[in-house]
Amino acid sequence: MTDFKVVYEEFKVRGKELVDKVNELIQEGNVRRIIVKDEAGNTFVEIPLSVAAIGVVAAPVPAALGTIAALIANFTIVVEKVQEKPPAGSPGGSPPSP
To answer: CA–CA separation, 49 vs 34, rounded Å?
Structure first.
């Protein structure tokens, strides 16, 4: 059985870069959730992976993000990803060579 760990990454973006960065993250495919916050840490949008996976994000979310981006200059995008934990006892997660 494979164990997973949750990893968070943060990206600081300017308003005009917001939609492009969110679309790029969605295309990666290993994102579990995307949270868009303003400079003060207020959450504007949370996009769960299930929504991104079925393609619902294609129109309404980027349109909403574009509207928000026009109002505020700087954002923080918090990305929640799931990664496999390396097997116990193997340095760096690589299996030993035969």
So the answer is: 8
Overall pTM surpassing 0.70 (yes/no): no
Q: What tens digit of pLDDT does each residue of 26-39 get?
A: 777 778 888 989 88
HEC readout, 55-97? CHHHCHHHHHHHHHHHHCCEEEEEEEEEEECCCCCCHHHCCCC
Beta bridge partners, 82, equal 6
CA separation for the pair 93, 20 (Å, rounded): 33
- Report the alpha-carbon distance of residue 34 to residue 50 in Å, rounded: 11
Measured CA angle at 28 (ends 67, 71), to 5 deg? 15
User: For all residues of the chain together, what is the average pLDDT?
Assistant: 75
